[in-house]
Design a protein that fits this description.
Helix content: 10-25%
Largest sheet: 7 strands, mixed
Number of helices: 2
Order of helices and strands: HEHEEEEEEEEEEEEEEEEE
CATH architecture of the largest domain: 3 Solenoid
Distance between the termini: 61 Å
Number of domains: 2
Radius of gyration: 22 Å
CATH superfamily of the largest domain: Single-stranded right-handed beta-helix, Pectin lyase-like
Length: 206
């Protein structure tokens, strides 16, 4: 390359680089907070606290991976089926309740590549699991109670969506099960698991 062309090439690169960096930055997805309240309506994209949606499932369907669904105090009846990384955050575990209505899992994450955070919620009345997650799971400041899983199930399962695992060993007086294969990360902090009825299983397994 000619010595005269080298400064010109450097000048062009220096002029183009800031725009390339800007386009790369602008392309990065931005996490959004979606709002849910019992007084809301399932319309729009749930992104305004002044216009919340009515159901967690509808808010999930509007969300993208990485979003937070902010749930106002109240009782939300019905199963929540997730297929992307989300945070479900209530106002307070005592007053923000997800009720599975005795059918299936109250909250279920199918996608093994996704992550689920549940914070300040009560999860109750699940007929299969209270919480079933195929991906990484973090439960904080939550109450998990009154779930009625059937044989070889548990109140909390970090094990995949439709998998009943073989059991390897038992920890902490029927609170946590671990199994042979496909273990999923599960972290539970500052939470209460009580009054769940299970047969031949535990309060939670991974």
């Amino acid at each position: 390359m000619s010595k005269k062309l080298i400064p010109l090439a450097l000048l062009v690169c220096s002029a183009v680089l800031p725009f390339w960096l800007m386009s790369t930055t602008l392309a990065a997805p931005q996490a959004t907070t979606r709002y849910v309240a019992t007084t809301g309506a399932d319309s729009g994209n749930c992104s305004s606290p002044a216009s919340p949606c009515a159901t967690i499932q509808y808010a999930h369907d509007q969300a993208v991976a990485g979003d937070t669904i902010q749930i106002a105090a109240g009782t939300y009846v019905g199963n929540v089926v997730l297929n992307r990384s989300l945070t479900l955050e209530g106002a307070n575990a005592e007053t923000t309740i997800v009720d599975g209505n005795g059918v299936g899992s109250a909250v279920q994450l199918y996608d093994a590549a996704s992550a689920l955070t549940i914070r300040r919620l009560t999860i109750r009345n699940g007929g299969a699991y209270g919480i079933s997650s195929g991906g990484q799971t973090l439960i904080e400041e939550a109450i998990i109670r009154d779930n009625r899983p059937s044989e070889a199930m548990a109140a909390v399962c970090a094990c995949g969506a439709n998998h009943h695992p073989p059991y390897q060993h038992l920890l902490q007086h029927r609170l946590v099960w671990r199994r042979h294969q496909r273990q999923r990360p599960l972290t539970i902090t500052h939470s209460v698991i009580y009054n769940n009825v299970v047969e031949q299983a535990g309060g939670a397994f991974t």
